[in-house]
Amino acid sequence: HIGLIPKQAGFDIFENNFDNKLAGPKTRGERIRIEGKVIDGTGTPVRDVLLEIWQANSEGRYNHPADTQDKKLDPDFRGWGRAGSDFKTGTYVFETIKPGPVPSRHGGGKMMAPHISFWIVARGINIGLQTRMYFSDEENANANDPVLNLIEQEGRRQTLIARREEKGGEGGYHFDIYLQGDKETVFLDV
Fold first, then answer.
1. Do 99 and 116 meet the contact criterion of CB atoms below 8 Å apart?
2. What's the pLDDT tens digit per position in 34-62?
3. Count of CB atoms situated within 10 Å of the CB of 118
4. How many Å apart are CA 141 and CA 101, to the nearest integer?
5. Is the distance from CB of 135 to CB of 98 less than 8 angstroms?
6. Which of 9, 64, 112, 118 has the CA that lies 20 to 30 A from 136?
7. Alpha carbons 137 and 77: distance in angstroms, whole number
8. HSE (side-chain half, CA atoms, 13 Å) at 73
9. Beta-sheet strands, E only, within the chain
10. Among candidates 81, 80, 83, which has minimal Cα distance to 5?
């Protein structure tokens, strides 16, 4: 925590802290809060996990030089965030916007459903785990997503779908990540 998310460990040592807030005050798009836990094989929340997310903006464009789509960049949207789980509850939180759909890497005009990519590291995980979070209120886009359709079992596919929920008048999504067991999240080999 001291090196990667020092502010959470009580140290304010960087001029620009990497944190869980991806959107600025002028960011375009629907503001959302993503909340969940990373759960180990015994059903216990992992209380010292580091999560990073990256995503497209509300137009469906990544803030990266390799994304050359003819869509607007949003100068007030970073598109990348880092958070640690709460030391007491194991809950992680990201404050961002809902991304737009992006083109498939395999071309053919196929679009990928709006999604957020996750990278997870913690003690006992020798290499970072990669997964994606899709949105429960994007049923049609999810049904046609080329990555989701690679997962043969419907029940396994559901491990990548975040549940929409309203909290305190704000829209958000709940997304738990299971490292092992019957509910194990689908991890990607990228």
1. yes
2. 999 999 999 999 998 999 999 999 999 99
3. 27
4. 8
5. yes
6. 64
7. 23
8. 11
9. 31-39, 50-54, 80-84, 91-97, 102-103, 111-112, 115-121, 129-135, 161-167, 170-174, 177-178
10. 83
Under DSSP, is residue 10 helix (H, G, I), strand (E, B) or coil?
Answer: coil
* Phi and psi, residue 162, nearest 5°: -85, 145
Characterize the bridge pairing of strands 129-135 and 161-167: parallel
Residues of the chain with pLDDT under 70: 1-17, 107
Q: Are 97 and 66 in contact (CB under 8 A)?
A: no
Please state, in angstroms and rounded to a whole number, the distance separating the CA atoms of residues 152 and 136. 18
Residue at 89: amino acid letter: T
**Long-range own/partner contacts, residues 150-156 (CB < 8 A, 24 or more apart):** 151/186, 156/186
Nearest Cα to Cα of residue 118 among 170, 63, 186, 183: 186
CA–CA distance, 113 with 140 (Å, rounded to integer): 9
* pLDDT tens sequence across 10-35: 666 666 667 899 999 999 999 999 99
Whole-angstrom Cα distance, residue 53 to residue 132?
9
**Token pair of 171 as six digits:** 């829209």
